[in-house]
Design a protein that fits this description.
Elements: E1 2-10, E2 20-26, E3 31-39, H1 43-62, H2 67-81, E4 88-96, E5 101-107, E6 112-115, E7 120-123, E8 139-144, E9 150-154, H3 156-159, H4 163-166, H5 172-181, H6 187-201, E10 210-218
Antiparallel strand pairs: 1-10, 2-3, 3-4, 4-5, 5-8, 6-7, 6-9, 9-10
Helix pairs in contact: 1-2
Length: about 240
C-alpha cells in the first residue's frame, strides 16, 4: 500500500501570518503522521502558538510517542509555557504501518471525515482544545488501514466559511460530496477543492485562517524500489 497526504492552507484575508500550522512527521516504526493546529486568535501571536504545538507534536511522534500521549504531552507543555491563558486546537492523522491502522486524534471542534469503499463516517464528538483546561484528554479513533481510504480534517476557518458574509456556514454535506466524488489517488486535489469551496463562500477573502489535511491510502502503483516523495508549494 501507499500513503499520500495533501495539505492546503491560507491565512485570514489581509493578514500576513497564518494562525494555523501544519507538518508531517515520520514514525520510527514505519508510517507517517499529519499534524494541524489552530492557535487562539489570528496573526503572528496565533502563528507562534500553533507552530509551537506542531513542532512539539512532530518531535514526540518522531521519538515514538503514541498519538493520544502526544496530545496530552503537548497540552501539558502549552499549559505550562502559556500559563493556562492560550488555547489551541490540535488534530493528528496517522498511518501506522506497525499496527496497519489509521489513527485519528482530535482536540478540535472540527470533524474528521473518513471515506472508505464501504462507508463514509463523520467523527465530530465534542472535545476541548488544548492549553487551558487542566484535565484534558483527546478523542482517539483507530481504524484498519485499507486501500481506497480517505481521511479529511480541517480548521474552523473552513467550517465557518461564509458565516460573516452570508450568515451561513460551510455545509458539511457539500464537503462530504467533494470527498465522495474523488478517489484516494489525489489527496492534494481533494484538499484544494475543499479550499476553493470555502474561499468561494468567503468571496475569495478568507474570514479566518484555513487549513485542510487529507490522508489517503492506495495500492502501490509498482513493485520494486520504494521511493518517498514530498511536494511543497509555498507562495511568497
Amino acid at each position: 500500500m501507499e500513503v499520500r497526504i495533501g495539505i492546503a492552507k491560507t491565512s485570514k484575508y489581509a493578514m500576513q501570518y497564518c494562525g494555523d500550522s501544519c507538518d508531517i512527521a515520520e514514525r520510527p516504526h514505519g508510517g507517517i503522521s499529519a499534524i494541524i493546529a489552530d492557535g487562539q486568535g489570528n496573526g503572528l501571536a496565533a502563528h507562534h502558538t500553533s507552530s509551537l504545538v506542531v513542532n512539539k507534536a512532530a518531535s514526540l511522534l518522531a521519538d515514538g510517542t503514541r498519538d493520544g500521549a502526544v496530545a496530552r504531552a503537548v497540552h501539558d507543555y502549552l499549559y505550562a509555557v502559556k500559563d493556562r491563558k492560550v488555547s489551541c486546537t490540535l488534530a493528528l492523522v496517522s498511518a501506522d504501518l506497525e499496527s496497519e491502522t489509521v489513527v485519528i486524534s482530535r482536540n478540535t471542534n472540527c470533524p474528521a471525515i473518513v471515506k472508505t469503499d464501504e462507508y463514509t463516517a463523520v467523527y465530530d464528538e465534542s472535545v476541548s482544545a488544548i492549553g487551558v483546561n487542566r484535565h484534558m484528554k483527546p478523542i482517539v479513533y483507530e481504524l484498519p488501514m485499507t486501500p481506497g481510504m480517505v481521511i479529511v480534517t480541517y480548521t474552523d476557518g473552513i467550517a465557518h466559511a461564509g458565516k460573516k458574509r452570508k450568515g451561513e456556514e460551510a455545509s458539511i454535506d457539500k464537503i462530504i460530496e467533494i470527498i465522495e466524488k474523488n478517489d484516494a489517488s489525489d489527496p492534494e486535489f481533494i484538499a484544494r477543492s475543499i479550499m476553493e469551496y470555502a474561499l468561494t463562500l468567503d468571496q475569495e477573502q478568507a474570514g479566518d485562517d484555513m487549513t485542510i489535511v487529507v490522508l489517503s491510502v492506495v495500492e502501490r502503483q509498482r513493485a520494486g524500489v520504494k521511493i518517498e516523495e514530498i511536494r511543497v508549494t509555498y507562495p511568497c
